């Protein structure tokens, strides 16, 4: 046939591949090196969209390349199938989330198969499967045994729309990461993972990832962990009751202690209510009620008008002995540092704004040469000479200043040097139905009791027909039969914890499970994990830079400390793909600029869509679909496919003796493409393949002709290169060339180094035995041409000067010797 029928080709090969099962992990030659290629698993909230199409197409270039290179590849797929998106969608449709979720999973699986991603389909997993979440529960209990999962009562982020708490990481600019509603605070008893215990290691272990993770992601994690060096300083307070009390502050600038003129405590910290003078208590309570509405982002904003309440008590500056007022304000956060600060208005802008708003004293202690902040209203934060600072006066080294004040404080026992982290513990409990139940039982006599290991899993009850609408408590609390149990410890009446786990708990360890998805003795088979992990290449969106990637790193470190694995970082290399946009903007329903993947595939075929996405630009760059030409991609693929029909020498013919120029083009392409794939420059891989197709077409039509064995070699190479991007066309070409399927496992072409001749060589020109010029010339240059070039060179002409040329000895292409 001379036309390429996309649909029938797709149907044909899907069946063949299903029988061949070519991408089963462990199916490479014995002893082959193992490579784990991972792509972030999808939420089953609908069918696949353009974003999935892009990330999977890029990811699959790597996985398929590894197979071609002879590695044993683990490229698994599964679904992040618990969680709010599915639950909210199910509520809207008045369906059981399970029905909706599993139907979507089937739809997506079908789409992935049609999209021909080289997954090992035998390893499918869903985080909402009982066999999976029993181990999520098991891990929770193991973490708890290590003191890394605990419950505490404290103010938490609350999404009024989803009626559930949120982790700090799920609050994006004050909004719920999922639904966009403004997040408020509530006091609740909730479960946490103690990720703060790992803050320093999470920072340190990023160093070796410097070259293989996007620097943006590393910077975001560093910033999120937020390590600050500084000091804790103790201030003695005199309360109105006559009692005294010590309040600790965290400061990164203890060297400015002489400039501290008042103290501020977080208005919503417990401490504020404890120290406030009785006559100010009411005012404080009213103020706290007001600020509960503000987000942390608002509260820390420098341009926000300062507000606060004078608590009517005084504190003593430990170095000046001066008495200073204590205020409560919302610009100090309750859960950062110690929830209290020493205000140094001269050198901290927020403190200065506050001082000016409430007429509090400003004292400059670092002279930076700028105008005095007291007059300018602009705090100076840089280095300068210390003034009004006792022993520091006249000095000007900040590091030294900080160290010497810490020394003084430590000697007197009124402070210590310390490191503070911005990272908070991970709030993991959710008041929603569709998640892994927390395997804890609450007993009035025994307190919190872990569900015994042999009673796992705690199966999520079927609440079909029940109202799952968020009401602030988990719908599980109303499932009487499920909730009421005997205490495993005393046998008395007790209740199950009715919260479920954040889905980020599920996704923090799924890549371990893929190594042995049917293992029943633990979350994973240690040997299988030793074989495959860590992940060699992880591909996914930058939106997971903090949440998922930080949590996964934390889980991996805990598993390491539990002795279950011997590495500490899960993902050796990370690639963040760009976004697929349309007409310059993100695709969205409200803009009406969505592009339907299914329709695109129906119109142009899978290969053309995949090729378009890979060819669009560097993988990390955004793709504007409006600028793309899937029709052009399809035309190119048909051109490539036609080559296979034109090859006229039999399969198995040795390429030796074939046309040299074409053979060189082929081998140079393979050599270059190998480096391009290793360097993740997949778009250039496509460009080089296109060039090889054009060169081969010329060779068939005008050059050595279709019988030349170099043509077969070139077309076979095109098929193999295309197998990374356009698997259907590649397979069809391979068959037309007389091979058995599958081209995906044909093996990477071997490069013959003798065919990689350089385009130019350097010819040396000597005059009177001295080198006077170096010329870049073609290796095939004739002696006459080389002589002419040499004699025309400016330096050579100068070197000869007035002398008479007696003899020119030419050894093309390397040497010209001029005798005068
Ligand atoms: C005195 C001081 C003087 C400060 C100065 C800064 C400059 P990072 O680097 O982010 O850790 N701070 C401490 N706890 C706070 C809280 N709970 N809410 C709001 N602000 C708080 O910032 C640490 C600095 O932020 C601390 O150092 C403290 O102000 C303030 F010239 O103390 B500093
Ligand atoms: Zn009990």
UniProtKB/TrEMBL annotation:
| PROSITE patterns in UniProt | AA_TRNA_LIGASE_I (PS00178)
Pfam families noted in UniProt: Anticodon_1, tRNA-synt_1, tRNA-synt_1_2
Which InterPro entries did the record assign?
aa-tRNA-synth_I_CS, aa-tRNA-synth_Ia, Leu-tRNA-ligase, Leu_tRNA-synth_edit, M/V/L/I-tRNA-synth_anticd-bd, Rossmann-like_a/b/a_fold, tRNAsynth_Ia_anticodon-bd, Val/Leu/Ile-tRNA-synth_edit
* Residues noted as binding ATP in the record, renumbered to the chain: 589
EC number assigned by the record: 6.1.1.4
Top-rank taxon = Bacteria
Region Disordered, as annotated, extends over 369-395
One GO molecular-function entry: leucine-tRNA ligase activity
Where the record annotates domain Methionyl/Valyl/Leucyl/Isoleucyl-tRNA synthetase anticodon-binding, the positions are 660-782
Swiss-Prot/TrEMBL catalytic activity:
tRNA(Leu) + L-leucine + ATP = L-leucyl-tRNA(Leu) + AMP + diphosphate
Q: Where is this motif: 'HIGH' region?
A: 42-52
Which EC main class describes this enzyme?
A: ligase
Domain Leucyl-tRNA synthetase editing, residue spans: 222-409
User: Which example biological process does GO assign this protein?
Assistant: leucyl-tRNA aminoacylation
Record Gene3D superfamilies: 3.10.20.590, HUPs, Isoleucyl-tRNA Synthetase, Domain 1, Valyl/Leucyl/Isoleucyl-tRNA synthetase, editing domain
Show the ranges annotated as biased composition (Polar residues): 378-388
The similarity annotation says: Belongs to the class-I aminoacyl-tRNA synthetase family.
Q: Which PANTHER family match?
A: LEUCINE--TRNA LIGASE, MITOCHONDRIAL, LEUCYL-TRNA SYNTHETASE
What protein name applies here? Answer: Leucine--tRNA ligase
Q: Which organism is it from?
A: Nocardioides dokdonensis FR1436
Q: Which gene encodes it?
A: leuS
């Amino acid at each position: 046939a001379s036309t390429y029928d996309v649909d029938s080709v797709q149907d044909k090969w899907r069946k063949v591949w299903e029988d061949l099962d070519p991408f089963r992990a462990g199916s490479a030659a014995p002893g082959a090196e193992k490579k784990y290629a991972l792509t972030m698993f999808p939420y089953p909230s609908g069918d696949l969209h353009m974003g999935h199409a892009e990330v999977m197409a890029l990811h699959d270039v790597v996985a398929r390349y590894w197979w071609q290179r002879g590695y044993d590849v683990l490229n698994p797929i599964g679904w992040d199938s618990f969680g709010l998106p599915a639950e909210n969608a199910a509520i809207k449709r008045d369906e059981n989330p399970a029905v909706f979720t599993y139907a979507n999973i089937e739809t997506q699986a079908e789409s992935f198969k049609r999209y021909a991603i080289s997954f090992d389909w035998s390893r499918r997993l869903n985080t909402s499967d009982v066999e999976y979440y029993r181990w999520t529960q098991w891990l929770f209990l193991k973490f708890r045994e290590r003191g890394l999962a605990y419950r505490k009562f404290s103010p938490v982020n609350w999404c009024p729309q989803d009626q559930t708490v949120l982790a700090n990481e799920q609050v994006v600019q004050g909004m719920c990461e999922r639904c966009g509603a403004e997040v408020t605070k509530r006091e609740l008893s909730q479960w946490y993972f103690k990720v703060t215990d790992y803050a320093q290691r999470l920072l340190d272990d990023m160093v070796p990832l410097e070259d293989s993770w996007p620097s943006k992601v590393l910077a975001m994690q560093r910033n999120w962990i937020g390590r600050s060096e500084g000091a804790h300083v103790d201030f003695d307070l005199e309360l109105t009751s006559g009692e005294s009390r010590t309040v600790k502050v965290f400061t990164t600038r203890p060297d400015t202690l002489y400039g501290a003129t008042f103290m501020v405590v977080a208005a919503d910290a417990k401490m504020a209510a404890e120290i406030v003078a009785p006559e100010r208590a009411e005012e404080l309570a009213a103020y706290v009620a007001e600020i509960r509405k503000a987000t942390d982002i608002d509260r820390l904003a420098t341009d926000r008008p300062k507000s606060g309440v004078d608590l009517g008590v005084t504190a003593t500056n430990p170095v000046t002995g001066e008495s200073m007022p204590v205020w409560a304000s919302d610009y100090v956060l309750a859960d950062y540092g110690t929830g209290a600060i020493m205000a140094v208005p001269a050198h901290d802008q927020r403190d200065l704004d506050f001082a000016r708003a409430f007429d509090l004293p400003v004292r400059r202690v670092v002279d930076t040469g700028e105008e005095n902040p007291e007059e300018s209203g602009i705090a100076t934060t840089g280095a300068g000479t210390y003034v009004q600072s006792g022993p520091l006066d006249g000095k000007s080294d900040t590091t030294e200043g900080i160290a010497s004040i810490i020394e003084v404080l430590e000697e007197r026992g009124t402070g210590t040097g310390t490191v503070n982290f911005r990272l908070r513990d991970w709030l993991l409990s959710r008041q929603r139905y569709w998640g892994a139940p927390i395997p804890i039982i609450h007993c009035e006599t025994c307190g919190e009791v872990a569900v015994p290991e042999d009673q796992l899993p705690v199966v999520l009850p079927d609440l079909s027909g029940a109202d799952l609408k968020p009401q602030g408590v988990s719908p599980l609390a109303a499932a009487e039969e499920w909730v009421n149990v005997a205490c495993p410890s005393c046998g008395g009446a007790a209740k199950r914890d009715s919260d479920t786990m954040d889905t980020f708990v599920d996704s923090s360890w799924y890549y371990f499970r893929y190594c042995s998805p049917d293992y029943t003795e633990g979350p994973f088979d240690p040997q299988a994990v030793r074989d495959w992990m860590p992940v060699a290449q992880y591909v996914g969106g930058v939106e997971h830079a903090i949440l998922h990637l930080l949590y996964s790193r934390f889980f991996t470190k805990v598993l390491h400390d539990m002795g279950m694995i011997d590495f500490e970082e899960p993902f050796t290399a990370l690639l963040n793909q760009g976004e697929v946009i349309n007409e310059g903007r993100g695709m969205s329903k409200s803009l009406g600029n969505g592009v339907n993947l299914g329709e695109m595939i129906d119109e142009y075929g899978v290969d053309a869509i995949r090729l378009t996405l890979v060819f669009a630009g560097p993988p990390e760059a955004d793709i504007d679909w409006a600028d793309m030409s899937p029709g052009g991609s399809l035309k190119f693929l048909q051109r490539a496919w036609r080559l296979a029909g034109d090859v006229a020498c039999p399969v198995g013919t040795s390429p030796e003796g074939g046309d040299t120029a074409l053979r060189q083009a082929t081998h140079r392409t393979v050599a270059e493409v190998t480096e391009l794939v290793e360097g993740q420059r997949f778009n250039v891989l496509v460009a080089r393949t296109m060039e090889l197709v054009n060169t081969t077409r010329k060779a068939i039509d005008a050059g050595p002709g279709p019988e030349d064995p170099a043509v077969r070699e070139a077309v076979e190479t095109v098929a193999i290169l295309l197998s990374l991007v356009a698997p259907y066309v590649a397979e069809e070409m391979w068959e037309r060339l007389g091979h058995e399927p599958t081209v995906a496992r044909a093996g990477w072409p071997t490069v013959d180094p003798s065919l990689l001749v350089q385009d130019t060589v350097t010819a040396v020109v000597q005059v009177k035995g001295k080198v006077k010029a170096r010329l870049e010339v073609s290796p095939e240059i004739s002696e006459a041409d080389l002589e002419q070039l040499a004699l025309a060179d400016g330096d050579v002409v100068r070197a000869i000067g007035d002398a008479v040329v007696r003899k020119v000895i030419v050894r093309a292409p390397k040497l010209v010797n001029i005798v005068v």
